[in-house]
Write a structure and sequence with these properties.
10% helix, globular, 17 strands, 238 residues, mainly beta, 11-stranded mixed beta sheet, two-stranded antiparallel sheet
């Protein structure tokens, strides 16, 4: 099924446009930002869009939930798959999808296994992590927190916006479709057909075949609050 957001996406993006224009259903206008200053629009719980000139980034608030062991995810949703994810965030995956589109990213397609393996596609997304260390705010590449199980080298490829899937809601077949990213698979390091963001390489999910693990020495203590920054990598204009 083609990846798309339900009608809630329109509400989210409309709210975003109003916020950036400086009005919100009759609310007082927002003061005009100085040149070079950034604007932030809150799109949903723990999810914001930041705009500075031509630069657009999605900001997600979360916390460190795991520091060692083999991985399925860089980030999952709270109360889903924290046992195999470094970061957990309390938010709606549909809002993350809509925010990425508002930031200029285009959803591609999740991984396909039949009739042969086809890696996930979509706009490449650079991911950084921001947190407080020794009283200072630091920003590091998310890839530095993930390493290859055998070579111990850092992850050396960026994620792509695969876009997850919409399916008929088994609990409400006549209602709106269910967005499978809300099963918890938001930013994956193993290939999953419901991932919002996935790696565009072969990364098997079988436990004995997994190739990535947490780089423990580089990850701050458990429960450390972090901001996960998603920045679509746009093609340079010729």
């Amino acid at each position: 099924m083609k990846c798309a957001i339900d009608s809630r996406r329109l509400v989210i993006l409309t709210t975003l446009v109003l916020a950036l224009a400086g009005c919100d259903d009759g609310a007082p206008p927002t003061p005009k930002a100085e040149p070079g200053a950034s604007k932030k629009a809150v799109l949903g719980k723990n999810v914001s869009l930041e705009i500075q000139g031509d630069r657009r980034r999605v900001l997600i608030q979360g916390h460190v939930c795991l520091r060692e062991g083999q991985l399925e995810h860089l980030m999952c949703l709270v109360d889903t798959k924290e046992h195999e994810a470094i970061i957990a965030a309390d938010c709606d995956a549909r809002v993350i999808h809509a925010a990425l589109e508002a930031a200029g990213a285009k959803a591609g397609s999740p991984v396909r296994w039949e009739p042969k393996f086809q890696p996930p596609t979509g706009t490449p997304v650079r991911i950084s992590i921001q947190y407080e260390k020794d009283g200072e705010v630091v920003t590091v590449p998310a890839r530095d927190w993930i390493r290859h199980v055998r070579t111990k080298k850092n992850l050396d490829v960026d994620w792509v916006f695969a876009g997850s899937q919409l399916i008929r809601n088994p609990n409400n077949p006549q209602g709106p479709p269910f967005y499978r990213g809300n099963e918890g698979d938001v930013i994956c390091v193993i290939n999953r057909d419901n991932a919002v963001l996935d790696l565009p390489i072969y990364s098997p999910k079988a436990l004995d075949d997994r190739i990535f693990e947490a780089h423990t020495d580089r990850i701050p203590p458990l429960k450390t609050k972090v901001v996960v920054i998603l920045e679509p990598i746009r093609e340079e204009k010729k």
